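Tokens for ATP-grasp domain-containing protein. Go.
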Amino acid sequence: MKVALATCASLPAGDGDDADVPGALADIGVESAWLRWGPETDTDTDTDTDADLVVLRSTWDYPERAAEFLSWCESVPVLANPAGVVKWNLDKAYLVDLIEAGVPVVPTAVATPGFDAWPEGEFVVKPTVGAGSRGALRVAAGDHEAAAAHLAGLGGPALVQPYQADVDHVGETALVFFGGRYSHAFTKGAMLVPDTVTDPTGLYLVERLDRAEPDAARRRTAEDVLDAATGLLGVRRADLLYARVDLIPGVDGRPLLLELELVEPSLGFGLADPGAPARFASAVRAALVDLP
């Protein structure tokens, strides 16, 4: 059994967080190699053609090449997560679908140039297709001119969301699932604050991470998010090799979905218990066994 771990040219062996994954896969008889996605793939092997399964990992340069990335995903014979899931989740307008399905989501509007229904108080404008918080702007209350200029500069649709101020001192809680089952969680400090810096690759903002033990409300919300998403997609939870549910506190303290990451999320192995890579490897092997 052979798996390709898809990444991008700037991170030929991933970002380091997945460093223990190849060994965990090898322990259970699964060979793995890194693969740079896209038609310009340049590897010493034909991993892209002979892998039984391609697993999306650090393909973080896709926002500027979204159509090409989707085309490549659709060309891969067996992809995790599946290309149909990627297509839905790549555009953050999926949050509107989840709102309509009854999921507690940060209030979200999709805006194009000319939009004028700005929230009261601070708010965020960010591209609907993006990774690593690039292109996200925290806008001061009433500064509609700056918001409109940023929206126009993005060159495409954007999400507009009221800023949830408690995230500044509580941060985000990221709950990670493998094969539809909860694995572990970690926290991420607020990203849209003055001292945030960009990684040298330019692909993402550097995150301040820590271990987490989510409470029952967060666990329940994350489970509800996965149930709703798989219902909308018409897939089983087990069909999702990985999922990361990012929650932040709303104004009343209850957890709200900020993002559901089903394409290429960092899975926080460095902050998880030592068994997390083995759980991921087991989910990969289960996906391989389920192949037709």
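The chain has nine helices and 13 strands.
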